[in-house]
Amino acid sequence: MTKTKAKKKYCSIFRSNLEQAIDIAENIRVRIKDFPEHLEALKKCPFWNFYRPFHEGRIIRDDTKRTQKGAEHIFNSFNGRKQVFEIQGKEFKSTADQLAVIFGLKRIQFGEEEEYSVTHPEPQIQAAQTTFWETYLKGVTMIEKKDIIDSLYAAAEDVTKPKDFVRLLGVYHCAAIFFPNQSGDKLSKMFLKYVFAMDQVSWPDVIHSYLLEALREAKKPIIRLRGCTVYILFWFAEITHFISKYDGERGNSKPRFVRWNSKVLAEKIVSQGMTSLRQDLTGSFIDPLDEGEQSLITPTELRQANSDATSEMVRGIERDEDCGSSPDRNAEDL
Fold this sequence. Notes:
Blueprint: E1 13-14, H1 19-31, H2 36-43, H3 48-55, H4 68-75, E2 78-79, E3 84-87, E4 90-92, H5 96-103, H6 112-119, H7 123-136, E5 142-144, H8 145-156, H9 162-178, E6 186-188, H10 192-196, H11 203-217, E7 224-225, H12 231-240, H13 262-272, H14 291-294, H15 303-323, H16 327-330
Parallel strand pairs: 1-7
Antiparallel strand pairs: 2-3, 3-4, 5-6
Helix pairs in contact: 2-9, 4-13, 5-11, 5-12, 8-9, 11-15
Region (Disordered): 304-334
């Protein structure tokens, strides 16, 4: 009797998530409690608004679990030609402005000269970057996330290394949340130049462009995707209020991703589908922006410049992965 080959079961795999970041922040808090220089350096970096809720223990780990299927539903509503999400007969467009407000990351405006310095660092910056890369990250093209975490903890415990500590935390955010590849365990060295020039980078634009480019290239059904996939659930929550925010003060927290239980949101999307939405939805945030959130947003003129920079970065990363272990290709075997 011929056995029927079982149909391969696919599961959605989106590596960007907040679970590990909660544990990382708890471990860092213990390590830097006697080093005020480390905390002061953190407060001056562009990631502080995003990182602060983790540092203060305001993110509930269990509320960030089992969100993959919910995100998959949203991603598969994406129309790559129109670059919009088509949900319940309406079109919704995600923007870098929205990502900036959700994560508390400031968009910046710069001229041609400043942008050039980011994509083509000065020689002395390149030398410092190379030393950092070789000292902390083994000087490899595709950097292991485990090595990033080990070096991050070591720098957190070294009173003389506040600047390197902040840079390594930035590298970790790139690897685990903002720019993870499909395997989730490696980061291209290409990202180091952005971390070394972190104050000159419009992070919301680069993060958003990287994710949208991945979506445009993806084939449906979308079950694997590089980039900041965790963002999409918070974006959907903000433009639909499909679930209620946390009660009390937390429901008005900033940045806005702290307001939402992404696990509950994902479960409702899976069980009910993206139906029964309010009829008055426009794609804008339902809760208006306050003055502080408005200050995170800058003119739209710089978007094209950031899109070009992102395309250059993606090409460089793809070259790195071709030369290295190509973790995205290995993800197909998961």
